[in-house]
Design a protein that fits this description.
The chain is α+β, with helices and mostly antiparallel strands. Helices cover about 20% and strands about 30% of the residues. Mean pLDDT is about 75; it is low at about 1-15 and about 195-225.
Length: about 230
Amino acid sequence: MSKRQFELAPESQGILEVESIFSELQNRGLVETRQVRFIQYDSGEFGYLIYMPSKPQLIPCLRYDNAPAAIDFLCKAFGFRKHVVYADPNDPTIVHHAQLVLGEAMIMLGSARRDPKMEKYHLRTAKEAGGVTVCICAVLDDSTIEAHFAQAQAGGAEIVTELHANEGYPGRSYNARDLEGNNWDFGTYDPWAVEGQANGYGAPIAPALRSSLSASLVNPSTSNKT
């Protein structure tokens, strides 16, 4: 896969110009939607970060008493889709392993089995544990989070906190529990979009990318390929 890094030309000072550049890159097939995030630095300069496709190295794994029902719930209420489901051929109520995806993220889950071989892992469902020790966070686009919140409500999720502006850092979020009590946080704050330390309300303070965009547009073949 070709990997290309594009930088803002110094004369590109307005957000409309930045959006125009992004459209041009898309039209030429050089970037895909969601690979680019525009940012404005404290200096007033615009920059952007490019996300190259990659497979996540950490994947949350959950256990449910009723895994088939959990899969249906997560798809209906939270917008996941089935990637693969390995149900027991003799008992379809038992899911040995399942993978669900939301955008570019994945979770894995399976049935909570009272099997002595599984005891060494000390796995417990939220109900068995009487609570949870982790919260699964999912990053959503600001343009879709309101619809996602409405979908969660309509799908029967227990809303813990309504959609709100985050306190002390950028973005909006809401928190919900699934049908077996696991805690989910859906929000627009993208921790990958902030480089280094944050200033004020998390405005990136890393130097803006500069200078090679015009040359890259004229001659994309000069970009690095791997």
